């Protein structure tokens, strides 16, 4: 692996005391991208506090259903039929994750997939913080053409051997993360850590047998993530917010029932659960942003997503998830109960 010649490792006395004591660099391959898709393989590289590799681990997992896009990950029904179930490897997986920050490329995806598998197994994932290498690359201002893992790897001269193989992807990411960590420490950069809250609810419906798989993109029904034979959490349509929109949120004042709230980007609490909390508090959860939106919640106000761009154009107030969580604890009642009843009807 070629090191970045511009990166100078800080001396022992310069290493930031607030940095984590260890990392678990993770990659999971899955049957698709939806919330009810399953993990079919996982790779973990454990690193110490300064990014030195301690060991690595890999397992395949029987998803008990169609393996999804075989042309991407290469794991067929036959290859997975004898693999352990997730609940059978959950304890060993936990030993690799416990007490460490989970590091992944687009970490919210890997974390949510892992959290859902633990929930199905009636266990709790031992992860309390995660770090996304995409976010860290932005913090470091790396001159990358895009946010693909291959671009981050190329920047540090890391050679990919088997793309979309969980262990090799974890190795590549670990080798790219190490110099990024050293650069962050040398520059006193605050690591973009997000809280991870394990999921505690789950519900599975009968899933399709692993003996049935698609033969390619055309036979998979529309692409990666489009095949959804089961539901981890019952889908439901949220009831219409019964309160009129009182207008925009004002800094220093409480939220008010009926305010339209939109979310953008990575959140430490799974998005659906965060939206549920907002709806239960009497807020209107908006799926898009308009001039009527009262507040945008995002942890990355410089991300350039369509919602963030529109918020700037419309002058919509923006707060991060932590501030929003505090505001949820003190939502003011709607101004007029009579108007609320009329709106509801």
Give a written overview of the molecule.
By secondary structure, the chain is α/β, with parallel strands linked by helices. Helices cover 31% and strands 15% of the residues. The protein is built from 11 helices and 10 strands. Helix 5 (133-140) packs parallel to helix 7. The longest helix has 22 residues, at 166-187. The chain is globular. The N and C termini lie far apart (65 Å).
Secondary structure: elements and pairs:
Elements: E1 22-30, E2 39-48, E3 53-60, H1 70-73, H2 77-81, H3 86-97, E4 101-104, H4 107-120, E5 129-132, H5 133-140, H6 149-155, H7 166-187, E6 193-195, E7 260-264, H8 271-280, E8 284-286, E9 295-298, H9 306-314, E10 318-319, H10 321-328, H11 337-344
Parallel strand pairs: 1-4, 4-5, 7-8, 7-9, 9-10
Antiparallel strand pairs: 1-2, 2-3, 5-6
Helix pairs in contact: 5-7, 6-7
- Total count of strands: 10
The percent range for helix content is 25-40%
Terminal CA distance: 65 Å
Strand order of the largest sheet: 3-2-1-4-5-6
| Spans of at least 5 consecutive residues with low confidence | 1-8, 207-236, 337-345
Q: Profile the largest sheet.
A: 6 strands, mixed
**Shape verdict:** globular
The fraction of residues in strands falls at 15-25%
Judged by helices, strands and strand pairing, the structural class is alpha/beta
Q: Which series of helices and strands comes N to C?
A: EEEHHHEHEHHHEEHEEHEHH
Rg from Cα: 22 Å
Q: What's the total helix number? A: 11
Kindly state the mean pLDDT as a whole number? 83
């Amino acid at each position: 692996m070629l090191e970045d010649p511009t990166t100078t490792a800080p001396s022992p006395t310069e290493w930031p005391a607030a940095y984590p004591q260890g990392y678990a660099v993770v990659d999971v391959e899955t049957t698709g991208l939806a919330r009810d898709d399953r993990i079919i393989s996982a790779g973990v590289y454990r690193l110490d506090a300064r990014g030195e590799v301690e060991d690595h681990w890999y397992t395949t997992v029987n998803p008990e259903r169609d393996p999804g896009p075989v042309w991407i990950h290469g794991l067929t029904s036959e290859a997975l039929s004898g693999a352990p179930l997730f609940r059978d490897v959950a304890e060993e997986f936990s030993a690799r994750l416990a007490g460490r920050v989970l590091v992944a490329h687009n970490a919210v995806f890997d974390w949510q997939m892992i959290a859902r598998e633990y929930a199905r197994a009636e266990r709790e994932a031992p992860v309390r913080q995660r770090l996304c290498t995409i976010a860290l690359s932005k913090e470091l201002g790396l001159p990358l053409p895009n946010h693909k893992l291959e671009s981050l790897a190329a920047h540090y001269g890391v050679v990919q051997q088997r793309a979309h193989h969980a262990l090799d992807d974890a190795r590549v990411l670990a080798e790219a993360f190490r110099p990024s960590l050293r650069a962050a420490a040398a520059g006193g950069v605050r690591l973009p850590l997000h809280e991870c809250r394990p999921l505690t609810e789950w519900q599975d419906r009968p899933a399709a047998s692993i003996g049935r798989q698609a033969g390619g993109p055309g036979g998979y029904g529309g692409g990666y993530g489009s095949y959804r034979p089961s539901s981890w959490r019952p889908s439901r349509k949220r009831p219409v917010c019964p309160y009129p929109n009182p207008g925009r949120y004002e800094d220093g004042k409480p939220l008010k029932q009926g305010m339209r709230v939109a979310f953008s980007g990575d959140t430490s609490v799974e998005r659906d659960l965060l939206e549920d909390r907002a709806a239960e508090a009497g807020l209107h959860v908006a799926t898009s942003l308009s001039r009527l939106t009262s507040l945008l919640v995002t942890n990355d106000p410089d991300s350039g997503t369509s919602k963030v761009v529109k918020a700037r154009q419309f002058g919509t107030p923006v707060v991060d998830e932590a501030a929003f969580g505090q505001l949820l604890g003190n939502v003011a009642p709607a101004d007029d109960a009579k108007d609320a009843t009329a709106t509801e009807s």
